[in-house]
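BUG: 3D viewer hangs when loading the predicted structure for this chain

Environment: internal workstation, default settings.
Expected: structure renders.
Actual: progress bar stalls at 90%.

Input used:
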Amino acid sequence: QVQLVESGGGLVQAGGSLRLSCAAGGIIFSIKTMYWYRQAPGKQRELVASITSGGSTNYGDSVKGRFTISRDNAKNTVSLQMNSLKPEDTAVYYCGVTLQNNYYWGQGTQVTVSS
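Structure tokens produced before the viewer hung:
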């Protein structure tokens, strides 16, 4: 059974930083591309960042230069370091992975950035 558990969300002022973590289980973590998505009320889920098994990264245009995705295969963990946060970054952030051509998501963690 796929298990994804996000943590690290919270309240922060604009310009501040947060670090999100996702603990994964039920998958062979080291061979999987991992994803961070976010969803704000009334908006569709958007890609924030991804990282392949080989460490290649990709970022959404709105977060390039501010967010960094990383992984620790020994701990089955993927992280998202978020710097220079803006109010428009406010959303629920989800960790994701694909298995058998389907996406699996964690419960999400709320990030709120005040102006």
